[in-house]
Design goal:
The protein has helices at about 55-65, 80-90, 125-145, 160-170; strands at about 30-35, 50-55, 70-75, 100-105, 110-120, 145-160. The chain is an alpha+beta fold and about 170 residues long. The strands form two sheets. Strands 3, 4, 5 and 6 form a four-stranded mixed beta sheet that branches. A two-stranded antiparallel ribbon has the order 1-2.
Length: about 170
């Protein structure tokens, strides 16, 4: 399903402009290869071959890690949350853990952008700090890629009365 891409010229707007020695891999199913891989019976077993990580893997890991932090209510902008709510109600639909996550993956590094909705009453800077730490730890531990930056954008604050209005509208539907 995934393909390995060869090194290419780096556009000035990619993560490579922020980090040296990386290439841009688009968010439409690209992969990055870790280690060049050696061949031959004389090589140790652990170094024979290449390891490729699809960018969707980094998206899912970052999304799950961000959602683990108390104070994060949801992820994504208004339109993506609306479409996600519709998708979640469709029978057989699965929640999209990558909603609100964008990544740029290079050969050894990655940059991550997160869109969050936080709970009312939490300190936004503390939540953003905790999200950053958890996402960096999870992505670096799981993939071996160096996370050069995690940009957090808080798009909305979830108010307690938002749940009350949703409950009222759900009870009115027969």
């Amino acid at each position: 399903m995934t393909t390995t891409q060869t090194a290419a010229a780096v556009p000035a707007t990619s993560v490579a402009s922020r980090t040296a020695g990386t290439k841009q891999v688009g968010s439409t199913g690209g992969t990055t290869t870790l280690g060049s891989g050696a061949t031959g019976a004389a090589e140790p077993a652990a170094t024979r071959g290449r390891t490729s990580i699809a960018d969707t893997v980094v998206v899912k890991i970052a999304g799950m890690a961000a959602r683990e932090i108390p104070g994060v209510h949801d992820m994504g902008g208004g339109l993506s949350r609306t479409l996600g709510a519709v998708r979640d109600r469709v029978p057989g639909g699965r929640p999209n853990v990558g909603r609100g996550v964008k990544v740029e993956v290079g050969e050894r590094q990655t940059a991550i952008d997160l869109d969050l909705v936080v709970e009312y009453g939490v300190a936004i800077t503390d939540v953003a700090h905790d999200v950053r730490e958890n996402v960096i730890a999870a992505v670096e531990r799981t993939t071996g890629l160096e996370v050069v930056e995690v940009n957090v954008t808080v798009n909305d604050v979830h108010l307690p009365e938002d749940d009350d209005e949703a409950a009222v509208s759900e009870t009115r539907v027969a």
